[in-house]
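ARCHIVE RECORD
Type: protein–small molecule complex
Small molecule: zinc ion
Source of inputs: curated submission
Record status: active
Notes field left blank by submitter.
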Amino acid sequence: MFFVECDECGFAVGFDYPNETFFFCKEHKFGVNVPNDDLGINHICKGCDKRMERYDLYEEDNVCPICNGMMTMCYQFVKD
Ligand SMILES: [Zn+2]
Ligand SMILES: [Zn+2]
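STRUCTURE (tokenized, with ligand):
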């Protein structure tokens, strides 16, 4: 598992599924990675009921969608 974190605004998304896509709400600095089967559907932010925007990590070159800062990729090793 890995997660990306923005150095500037602290926005972070954990990746639980094998894809490079997440959906985010700019207002709430909230991002979520979803299963491949759910990439085609709309995701709604629980905080504001607005449709979340889609972000493809490698296509967008790791630039934070919230503040345009650089996002760092971190790897997390999960203990069994
Ligand atoms: Zn940021
Ligand atoms: Zn929101």
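CURATOR ANNOTATION: The chain has no helices and six strands.
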